[in-house]
Structures are given as C-alpha cells and as structure tokens.
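hey so i finally got around to running the thing on that chain from the lab meeting. sorry it took forever, my laptop kept dying and i had to restart like 3 times. anyway pasting the input first so we r on the same page abt which one it is
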Amino acid sequence: MTADTAAPGRLIVTGARGQLGQEILRRAPAARAFGHRELDITDTAAVRAIVEPGDVVLNCAAYTAVDQAESEPDAAFACNEIGPAVLAAACADVGARLIHLSTDYVFPGTDDKPYDTAGPTGPSTVYGQSKLAGERAVSALAPQSHIVRTAWVYTGVGNDFVATMLRLERERDTIDVVDDQIGSPTYAADLAAGLLELVDRPDAPRVLHATNAGQASWFELAQAVFAGIGADPARVRPCDSTAFPRPARRPAYSVLSNDAWIGAGLAPLRDWQEALGDALSGRSD
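ok and heres what got predicted. didnt touch it at all, straight out
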C-alpha cells in the first residue's frame, strides 16, 4: 500500500511518539510532530499557537490504558474528550482540518456483525465513554473534521499484543489466549498509509472505519503470530475471558465495517493475515 506524503508544513501530527504516530512520520517526515511532552492538547493557548490556516491536524494522542481508566476517569476524559475538543475548536477557528482517531470501544461489543459507522454506540468502559465523548466534541466544534475509528492496532514492537506474543513464544512452552473476543487486527503501517491518503480527501465522509480486512479472535491472532515465525501454533491454547478477569470488560465482538471507507474511494486496507506476515517479516530480534 502506498500513500502520497503530505506537503511540508501542511500536516501536524499529535501523539507523534506513539506507535501510529511514528508510522505516520516515517511516511511523512516533513510533518510537524508533537508528542505529549512537546504539546499538551488540553492547553488551548499552546494548541492555538501551532495551528494555522490550511493545516491538517492528525490527532493520534489518546489515553489508552483501558483498565487504568476505570480508576482514573478524569485523566481519560482529559486526554480523550477535552484534548480533542481543544484541537477541534482551534482548527475550526483558523480554517484547519482535523482528522481524529477513535476506537471500536465506542460500541457495546455485543453484536454479531461488523459495526457500521452509523451504528448505535454504547460503550461499557470508561475508556470507551471518554473516546465517544471526544468524538461528539469534535463533531460539534469542527463539523468539517473526520473521525476515524480503528481497532486492535499493533506494530509487533514494544508492548502491543503481537509483540507480547513474540516475547511469550520465547519464554514459555505454552500460552493461554482468549478465544471469545473477536475483532480486526490492524497493522499500524497500513493504517498510517490510509490516514495519509485521507489527508488529501477533504470530501470523504465525516465518520469512517479503517481496519485491516477480516476478523479474528485474540487466540487466532496469537496462533497466526506463532505460525508466522515458524513456531508451533498448537502451543497457543484457547480459553474464555473468565480466565483473565480485568477491571474493564472487553467487547466480545468489535469488528468494524469498512464499507464507508471503501465507498469513499479510499484504498481498502488489506487482509489482516497478509499484513501480519509483513509485520513479522520486517521485525528484528
């Protein structure tokens, strides 16, 4: 997948030190990059100082500690609602455009078919509630913005699920992984390319979903990771969610429909298994 690099000075990336932000910068090195240490997106004056007419702001900043959010709701809502609201207001005031990243957690996770962009929301976690509040703030304050929901994002480096499976493969003979949570594994490199395509498409729908195609359980994803590096996938054993109780309940089914993305003429993200293969082939131990 390829995407045109945004013109120098046109693209601003917030949350630029995270896994997705880094992938975007790898493809658009001329972008103006701000991690949380360089920019507090809840600081109105600081945000207004960097946003200029004609800019496209790609907001990857988020509070993503799903379990911790249950005991830190103020922190979650500050980053996931107040911050996007500040960005949206600044963009609207100067004539800039905002592309805001959101999540499958805004849905209840109880359906059995992919969630459409217009499907009824109903988050059951503080994290999901804070992300939905951010979506609503962005829509209200910057009607020309784009909200892009995604899910199960990984690079295979650091502490994401794929990276964790790679580490556990080295450390343990067998591992147990839940098989009753279904979603769409999404390679950050593919998502970054799609978002950069959207940068040049102000005519695209205001709410979009962008994930790699297909669906899998965490168990199936873990097996695919093992198989992809030549390990025996039978070393991954299925279990249900009761084996790993968490403060925040995970969605049982959170597959997102990419129909709006494809219908807008944006390049569809490839099948998750192909993307995972590329992620694994490009890793360095």
